[in-house]
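Hi R.,

Here's the chain you asked about this morning:
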Amino acid sequence: MAVIQVLLPQFGMGMKDAQIVAWRKKPGDRVASGEILVEVEAAKSIIEVPSPTDGELLEILVNEGDVVEVRAAIAHLRTD
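And here is the predicted structure, written out as tokens:
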């Protein structure tokens, strides 16, 4: 098992940041690869960010309402 960072992906060439709208999971929750972790708003669109791997959500690093730069760490996952 390893701990990995979940990074805010870049959804478009001009995207520099996004606002965290709603976390769908909380620390301690099990997640499957591709399962939605969080909703973010970028360029007036709501985008769902999936889990990159199976595991457990250990820690949320940013709060709902926060604006986060692309490729910034938003959470930690422990992999299976």
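One quick note: The chain has a mean pLDDT of 95.

Cheers,
M.
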